[in-house]
Each structure stands twice: as structure tokens, then as C-alpha cells.
Amino acid sequence: HDHIVEITDVGESDGVAYLVMEYVSGESLLEHVQRGAFAWQRAANIAMQIAGALGRAHELGVIHRDLKPENVMLLTDKGVDNAKLMDFGIAKIIDLPALTFSEQLFGTPGYIAPEYVEGLPIDGRADLYSLGVLLYEMLTAQLPFEGKGQADLLLKPLTSAPIPPSQRVEGLPPALETLVLRALARKPEDRPHDAYAIQAALAEILRQHAGDRVSSAPQADDDPVHTSREVVETIFDVRDGGGETATVGRIATSEMADRWALALGELEAAISAARRRGGADAVAASRAAELALVASEMIPRVSRASSVVSELQARVDLLDARGREFRESIGNAIDVLCRDRSRERAHLDAIRARRRALEAAAHRGGEPRAWEISALSTEEERAAGVVHDLSFQVDELQRQLDARNEEHERELVEATGALEGSIAAMRRLSHEVVRTLDEGVQMLARTSPG
Length: 450
What we know:
Layout (H helix, E strand, L loop, with lengths): L6 E7 L2 E6 L5 E2 H5 L6 H20 L2 E2 L8 E6 L2 E6 L6 E2 L7 H4 L9 H4 L7 H16 L9 H10 L14 H10 L11 H16 L17 H9 L16 H25 L1 H85 L6 H78 L3
Antiparallel strand pairs: 1-2, 3-5, 4-7, 5-6
Helix pairs in contact: 2-5, 2-8, 2-11, 5-7, 7-8, 9-11, 9-12, 10-11, 10-12, 11-12
């Protein structure tokens, strides 16, 4: 994902788990916020990017749990912001068994959701609360709750409402303030239902108040909803793209061969000189000549081994590039479907709330509006069907992605193993050539004059 730091490896060393992530140059969001509040358009755009990143992470079953300014890198190029969500070190995999309460209080006071403090089960909406804090802080350069210490910051959200951002900064669109306060709701069910809903709401606010002149976060696809088979077939055409030729990352084997040939030529010249001197030098020259012959037979083997390494390295590079391309393509498709599903869920929730309100009014003796209740029920059924269909498409793409990732991992492990074996063989041959040439040189040096 464009706004998530790439995680290249995970593992454990001496009982300590670790993540290997790409290096991202730039400044943290904290460093930018410490200079003062952002223009609301800029803050909304950055929050929109982070929301998209959270949406992808949540779709993959990962809750960040420590979203704060230090964990967002901000790369700015010619006035265009590009946010990168960092540090998944304490992320939780959804549906895995939780730790005890004393073990599961992760995160940073001032940014963690109230349900953490209360020891309640968490889901992706806990990250939405943290995103609300980030957006609030970008808008005002302050936290939404005033506290005298860490404990105060933990407990204030349980007993107080956040200070409205409009009391601290002027000129905010009312819809933006409403969205921020919804994200900061104490109860998860009162927050937007997912990160894509926040992303869509921010995009709409920017569209209404600032046009489209902001740095890009992906906008929802306005194309009609396709069937799952159409989406899968479109995405999986990517799998067979690209050639099989190993032209990427080739090692300069000709340069290596030239280097060995030069060293061999120098040894042979020294052998000829020793022969001309005769005596003990000539005897040493004969022995050195045998070594030179061995080296001359080994050098082509080193060159061939180097060529094999180049081919295998290119194969690994190609597999890696294809994996990135495939994951990006299918990930973007999942994003589109998830944003569509998020919109439909919001529509479905609104219809359901309206229908229930009418039914409750009728039970209280209010004016019966059977025709509207019936129409709402029909629309509710249609919207629920669309949500179900979109969920099926997302699940299908995810299953296909998992299968492809397993296949890709097998291919990559095989190619990497072959590469490592070839590198080891090339190094052994290279060391043997060096040893043989050096032995020949030393043999001549022991008898040479001076």
C-alpha cells in the first residue's frame, strides 16, 4: 500500500520478535505538528491517506494499536504530502486470542481508545479513535483532552467529552469537526463503522470546500460494481505478465573474467622471466607453471559460475517484482471493493435506522406509514444483498491472493536457495583461484633475486 511502510521480513532472535521494514527518509508527523497547526485542508488530506492505510490493514486482519504522530512519516515533495504508516511492532492480529488485561494495555496515553483502558475487546475502531486524535492534533496542535500526566490522559476520555476543535482554531468546516468528534466517541459503536468511511467523508469535505487541489489519496471508484468473477479475472491477468529473461541485476561477469585473466597473465610473464634466469628459478618456474595451468582451467569455471549467479539473481529480482506487482494490483482491487462496501454499509445503516424509527413511532400510536416502511424494507434488502456480494468478492480476492502468495513464496524460496548455493560455489571457486595464483607468485618470489 502506498501509505504503509513495507515490511520485508519477520522473525525471532533469542526469544525477541523483530520486524524488518523499509527505510523511509523524511520527518515524522510529530516533528511537523510541533511546528504548529496545519491548514485544515492539509490535515484532512493526510488523515485521508492514513485512513486508507488503516482500511487496508484492517481488511487484512491487523489492528495497529499504537497510532500516534511518531509512527507516521511524512514525505513532502513540491508541496505534496505522502504519509507512511510505520511501526507495526505491537499490532494485533484480529481473532487471535487476547492477552490478559495487565498484558494488553498497549499504546500511548492521549492516543489510545477508551476501550483499551477499560479492558474491553478491541477491533479496528480503536485505531479510528487514534486517527481522530491525530486529525485533531494536526488541526489544533493540541490533544483533545487536557491532562496533567499520563494517568490523567488515560482516564479523561472515560469521564469527559473532548474539547471541540472549533474552540481552539477558527475556520473549520462544521462537517470536519463533526467527523473528528465522531471518531473520538467513547463507545466504538458511535464512531464511523470503518476507516474507509472516514476516508470517504474526508474526501467529500475536501471536495465541497477545497475542490480537488490536494495531494492524492485514492478516491473511491465511481465505476459500476462488477461481479466477483469479473474482478478476479481482471486482476489475475497480471499473474502471467512479464518475460522470463534474466536481464535485471546481472553481475558484470566479463569484468571478473578480465580480472582473473590479467592476474594469470602477470603470473605467466613472471614464469617466463624465471625460466630465462635458469637454475633454481627455472625449477620454481616449472612448478609455478603447473599452478598457472590449474588456474587457467579454473578461471572459466568461475566465469560460468558467476554467470549462473547473475541469472539466478535476476530470477529472484523478477519474482520479487512480480510479487509486488501482483499484490499491489489485487490490493488496489480490494480497496475499491471495500470502499464500495463501506458506502453501502453506511447507506444500509441509515435505511435500517429510519425504518426502525418509523416502526417505533407506529407502536407508540403515531401515524402509520406502512408504504414508507415497506419501501425502506425493500431497499434495506437490496442494500444488504449488495454488501453481501461485495463481501463475497473481497473474500474471493483474498483467498486468491493467499493462494498466489503461497505459490510465490515457494518459488522465491526455491530460487533464493539456488542463488545462495551458486554464490557459495562461486566463492569457493574464486578463493581456490586466488589461492592457486598466490601460491604460484609466492613460489617464484622465494627464488627471485633481491
